[in-house]
Amino acid sequence: MPQSWRADTKPHKFCPGCGHGLVLKCLGQAIDELGIQGKTVFGCDIGCSLLSWDFFNLDSVQTHHGRTTPVVTGIKRARPELICIAYMGDGGGYSIGVQHLISAAARDEKITAILANNTQYAMTGGQMAPTTMPGQKTETTPYGRDPETTGFPLHGQEMVASVSREEAYVARGSIANLRQLKSFIKKALENQMKEIGFSFVEALSACPTNWRTNAAETWDFIEEKMPVYFKVGETRKNE
Amino acid sequence: MSKKIVEQEKRAFMTGNEVVAWAALAAKADIMYGYPITPQNEIMHYWTRMAPKYEKSFLQTEDELSAGFTTIGGVMAGRKAFTATAGPGNTLMQEPMSMAEMMRLPTVVVVQQRGGPSTATVIYSQQEVTMTSIGGNGEGMRIVYSTSSHQELYDYTIKAFNTAWKYRFPTFVLGDGYQAKMRESLTLYDPEARGIELIPPEAYVGKEGVPGKDRPPAHFRNTYNMEEELYELVMDALQDYEKISPDVAEYHSAGIEDAELVIVGHGIVYRAIKAAVEAMREKGLRVGYFRPVTLRPLPVPQIKELMASNKQILLMESSYGQLARLFKDVAYGSSTKINTFFKPGMGITAEEVEAAAREILK
């Protein structure tokens, strides 16, 4: 268990098979390896990410839906010496809070935003999100997402990258490759620590509860189907 | 230590928005987060000009949601943070301020009311009383100072930071387009030189030491597992709010003792009421006024006393009964008639006050 995890709140509150625990494991390991536990502030959103409000031995704040980016930005602007992390889902970051994420990237806020993309709104029971795949069944697209009437999945990571400065770090990892995901998160945090610029990591994540998938189907969705639309890799890296 | 904005007391002639920027600096505010909306813009304009000279910061955000939530971030980081807004911006501000209310965060928001809902009618209004006092999905645990002059804008902006950090409830200075844009004389002063202690801010997050090793982590949340858990927190906060209300509530009154008619109003309408009452007194009419300075919490015992005195009441405001609703709630049980004069989004002159008063006294 990472040092920066809060042991007395484990086991965590996420559903069995949920990707959040894996993303947060990578984040915890990155924090440990960088030795920043004493100066890191963690913000989490509304949606399943809120279940991480007491996940770490880090000063933390759970905010309103989509509003973690501005809260964390406000903290960073007031106390630039802190390492500030905004943790959210795809609904919070790409829909209701998209103006905050895009504006923080455009202003090159020296924060790290981490977004878990599970292609739908999980906490509210599995509705369509901007990231829902064509044909994917959700509670608000019970016959499958029809791109003709509801659009195609939003390439959020690419959107963030397109407004970010060259110095920013913008990448998409996946819980299917934890070693890589951790290295992405670590580079993102280093970008902030070196005061270089904005950093953002989208993590392809799983929601077998709302996907209604078994282990094999879950793995197939995340490893085979999602990367068709959501390309894994580093889009902006300051090297 | 940054230098003081006002070394010696001095008279100044400036717009209300400029006054707010000076007052925030005098109150040792650290950072302003803001989004442009008329009629509060010049607060940002003056802050951005003066702030760097005093090692203060500013962030222009993407909207008022962000202005409110970044202000929350600034406060949680342990800085005196504030924002300013108006009208539709105030509507968006309700979301962050409802979070501040539940987390007991000492945010300071200056609201320069504008008529609405609309655009362009940004000169004059008292139509943001309900929203500022009890907006958001909560119980309205806020402190709202309704100012009536530039001196009060200065005094109460300074006071708002102290009130917020002392009691840990979101605090609002409620002005309007008139106060924001007109020029008026006032005295600028250093609050500490006048013996006003400035309450220092405290960090909620980013505190000393490694969490989990040197100290427990600070975990703030808006999520609760059980209704009972939330109920307890809301009731605790409400109890605190009720307890501090008598200390926080402020009012002005004059001529009530022998008055046949007491005129009630707040903010800049009170200026007209005061002028009219003084003029009528000179003509021998037995009139007085009662003006709540705080709209949340209202000065409850004084209103109850007034309503028990069997005098005629005339309540005047530049909205369609927003103060009246708050006032009548306190006055409940009294049989005293409340005459009303509502002009939503329009100014009220001393002449109109006198005419309305004479109509009742006839």
- H/I helix tally of chain A: 9
Question: What's the N-to-C terminus distance of chain B?
Answer: 62 Å
Looking at the overall shape, the CATH architecture of chain A is: 3-Layer(aba) Sandwich
CATH-level-4 superfamily name of the largest domain in chain B: Thiamin diphosphate (ThDP)-binding fold, Pyr/PP domains
Q: Could you please say which CATH topology of the largest domain in chain B applies here?
A: Rossmann fold
Instruction: Note the total helix count of chain B.
Output: 12
Give a verbal description of the structure.
The complex is a heterodimer of chains A (239) and B (362). Chain A has a single domain (7-236), classed as 3-Layer(aba) Sandwich (Rossmann fold), CATH 3.40.50.970. Helix content of chain A is 37%, strand content 18%. Chain A contains nine helices and nine strands. Chain A has helices at 20-34, 68-78, 90-96, 98-106, 147-150, 156-163, 178-193, 208-211, 215-229; strands spanning 40-44, 59-62, 83-89, 112-117, 120-121, 127-128, 169-174, 199-204, 233-236. In chain A, helix 7 links the parallel strand 7 and strand 8. In chain A, helix 1 packs across helix 7 (178-193), helix 3 crosses helix 4 and helix 4 packs parallel to helix 6 (156-163). The model of chain A has no long low-confidence stretch (mean pLDDT 97). Chain B is an alpha/beta fold and 362 residues long. Chain B has two domains: 10-194, Rossmann fold (3-Layer(aba) Sandwich); 251-361, Rossmann fold. Chain B contains twelve helices and 15 strands. Chain B has a seven-stranded mixed beta sheet with strand order 3-2-4-5-7-6-13, with helices on both faces. The radius of gyration of chain B is 21 Å and the shape is globular. The chains are: A alpha/beta (239), B alpha/beta (362). The A-B interface holds A 4, 6, 37-39, 41, 46, 50, 53-54, 56-64, 67, 70-79, 82, 99-100, 102-103 and B 30-31, 33, 57, 59, 61-63, 65-66, 69-79, 81, 95-96, 99, 203-207, 209-214, 217-223. Strand 2 (59-62) of chain A pairs parallel with strand 9 of chain B, so a sheet runs across the interface.
